[in-house]
Amino acid sequence: MIELRNLSKNFVTADGPVDALKHINLTINNGDIYGIIGMSGAGKSTLVRCINMLERPTDGTVLLDGKDLSTLRGRELREMRRKVTMIFQGFNLLMQRTCLQNIMLPLRFAHKAGPEAEKRAMELLEIVGLPDKANSYPAQLSGGQQQRIAIARALATQPDVLLCDEATSALDPKTTHSILELIRDINAKLGITVIVITHQMSVVQEICNRVAILENGTVVEEGTVSEVFSNPRANATRNLVYPDMADGASILPDGGQHVRVIFNGAVASKKPLLAQMALDIGICASIIGASTRSVGDRAYGYLMLEIPGTPQDLARAVTYLSSTPDVTVQVEAEYAAKEGTV
Amino acid sequence: MNFANAFTPERLQEAWNCLLTEFPFAIWETLYSTLLATLLAIVIGLPLGIILVTGEQKGIRPLPRWLMSFLNIFINLLRSVPFIILMVMVIPLTRVIVGTSVGTLASVVPLTVAAFPFIARLVESSLREVNPNIIETAQSMGASPFQIVMHALLPESVPSLITNFTLAITTIMGYTAMSGAVGGGGLGKLALAYGYQRYRYAVLYLAVIVLVILTQIMQSFGTWLARKCDKRLKNK
Questions:
Q1: A87: which strand partners?
Q2: Using CA atoms, how far apart are residues B87 and B178, in angstroms rounded to an integer?
Q3: Is residue A261 within 8 Å of A321, Cβ to Cβ?
Q4: Would you list the domain boundaries of chain B?
Q5: How far apart are CA B236 and CA B227, in angstroms?
Q6: Which residue does chain B place closest to A80, by CA atoms?
Q7: Model-level pTM?
Q8: So what's the pLDDT on residue A275?
Q9: pLDDT tens digit string along B81-100?
Q10: What is the least distance, in Å, from the CA of B138 to any CA of chain A?
Q11: Residue B37 CA to chain centroid, in angstroms?
Q12: I need a labelling partner for B77 at 20 to 30 A (CA). Which of A10, A41, A256, B149 fits?
């Protein structure tokens, strides 16, 4: 289990001090694939580097199974890093060394070079599906293959935790998918806890079970992926979940009464919700915007509606819509003030 | 200078004889002092260049600020003394090490003193070319500073180091010619003492031509080797 307790990190730059991370509290359980998502500059990379002490936190602690990592120095620190390994956006393989030599590198650092290390490296090449690339050089491989070699290298020292820093951001969607599958396999088969740093919603959606949303160095939302994505509460989350309507409120025409209907796994397809509302209570809502995703026969996402009529009509519409299972309704006037479920 | 007299058939015949009798040994002396001086300069300059990179405040093994300032100033000082003057200045040191200040072996001392700061700077620039992410990655794998240097920094910069060492070798070969002025042997001495001072200009030009050919050979070999070692290049 990894616990971040009140973690803060300040940098002193030419333009003055910068608070990269502010009082982060997170708990990552063993076996999780934990997503940390945010726009660039949100502090994701700094956060992940604080976990293996590539960056020293200014304040707060990082506990790995109860042990405070920020107190480690020298040999102890290096031994910890063999158990908390990392893959990167740029793969970062040694370009002048073969794939096999690259994979054996962490073992060499652990003074375990030799036939045994070579055997282990060959096994890892099998695991990542590139057994024939042992003597190839990274430049001869595609990006996806290079990341597979980097994953094999990260697994060489039999880590407990794998940190993925934008590991698929340099890859095309199809390759991204196959790398994510590999990471999920590793998590399932080897029981390695995975922390995924990304700015891509799709990555979190595909493999993570829990997610934290980072904005300006603070965690603005945290929970299971379905919880957070079906009903994003913080603005930053909405921006990530509905990038096409980055700021829901801003596209609304002036005046009018607007509500956001959020589908949180509602079995919506069987019932024409808006048509039914028009029939049942005589309110003809018009759709201003929508973004939904179907997972199985369930709907996740939202509809932005304009409700004509008086405030009483609005209240009736809200009551009506809210009575549907797994649907939440937010009046946009309150959304503009950030939070509030009616 | 009387060039008309310098290239008469007799003079050319004389130069040809000189090429057959004097040149082989002069070429050997040039190569030997160049290679020995380069080797010794690398032995001193390579670790120094590594320290210049790793010992910085933001390096992988920061050293005290005063020490880094001292090293930088020391290297700049040596680099700014013209070689012809440096040769004279290190004569006492040469006497201590070799026992004499005259001869080809003795000329290796000033050559090394002149070359090692140069090599240190070249190594420094080669190592700075290495992708900093590689260093971070090595750190994330639990590498000690020494291991990062040995297994990441140096292997990754091999092609660049070869290119720079080639540059060093050709420069040092130029210096060996100058060392002919203060008692060093080789093609430089031949050109100066035989060609210039005794007005045998054909010999002088011949010595220059041989130096040019040697430089070309070394440069071509170095370029070829650097390319051959670089695994970033595809389709080889």
A1: A164
A2: 9
A3: yes
A4: 3-229
A5: 10
A6: B142
A7: 0.81
A8: 85
A9: 998 899 889 999 999 998 88
A10: 8
A11: 7
A12: B149
Nearest CA in chain A to B140: A81
> Cβ contact (<8 Å) for A85 and B140?
yes
pLDDT at residue B196 greater than cutoff 80: no
Cβ contacts of B137 on chain A, cutoff 8 Å:
86, 88, 92
- Tokens 């959606």 belong to A205
Q: What is the percentage of chain A residues whose pLDDT exceeds 70?
A: 89
**Architecture of the CATH domain B3-229:** Orthogonal Bundle (1.10)
> What is the CB-side half-sphere exposure of residue B134 using CA atoms within 13 A?
23
Tokens 């720079």 label which residue? B164
Q: What are the residue boundaries of the structural domains of chain A, listed by start?
A: 2-231, 248-336
Render pLDDT for A95-127 as a digit per residue (tens, 0 to 9): 999 999 999 999 999 988 889 899 999 999 999
**pLDDT surpassing 70 at residue A249:** no
Fill in the amino acid letter for A182.
L
In SS3 terms, chain A reads as CEEEEEEEEEEEECCEEEEEEEEEEEEECCCCEEEEECCCCCCHHHHHHHHCCCCCCCEEEEEECCEEHHHCCHHHHHHHHHHEEEEECCCCCCCCCCHHHHHHHHHHHCCCCCHHHHHHHHHHHHHCCCHHHCCCCHHHCCHHHHHHHHHHHHHCCCCCEEEEECCCCCCCHHHHHHHHHHHHHHHHHHCCEEEEEECCHHHHHHHCCEEEEEECCEEEEEEEHHHHHHCCCCHHHHHHHCHHHCCHHHHCCCCCEEEEEEEEEECCCCCCHHHHHHHHHCCCCEEEEEEEEEECCEEEEEEEEEECCCHHHHHHHHHHHHCCCCEEEEEHHHHHCCCCCC
Q: Which of B133, B158, B234 sits opposite A88 (nearest CB)?
A: B133
Question: Radius of gyration of chain A from Cα atoms?
Answer: 24
Name the residue of chain A whose CA is nearest to B231's CA.
Answer: A96
- How much is the pLDDT for A327? 80
Query: A248-336: CATH homologous superfamily?
Result: ACT domain (3.30.70.260)
Where do we find the tokens 């002149």? B114
Residue A155 token pair? 């697994």
Half-sphere exposure of A314 (CA within 13 A, CB side): 17
Q: Which fold has domain A2-231?
A: Rossmann fold (3.40.50)
pLDDT for A336: 44
Residue B169 has which token pair? 């070798």
C-alpha to C-alpha distance for B16 and B206, rounded to whole angstroms = 9
Angstrom distance (rounded) from CA A320 to CA A278: 11
Integer Cα distance of A176 and A192 in angstroms: 20
pLDDT digits (tens, 9 = 90+) for A254-289: 667 888 887 776 665 566 788 888 888 888 888 887
Which whole-number Å values give the CA distances from B170 to A163, B24, B166, in the listed order?
47, 19, 6
A71 in Cβ contact with A274 (< 8 Å)? no
Q: Which residues of A touch B159 (CB under 8 A)?
A: 96
Please give the structure tokens belonging to residue B64.
């005290």
Q: Are A163 and A155 in contact (CB under 8 A)?
A: no
Cβ contact B144:B135 at 8 Å: no
* Neighbour-count burial for A22-48, b at 16+ CB within 10 Å, e otherwise: bebebebeeebbbbbbbeeebbbbbbb
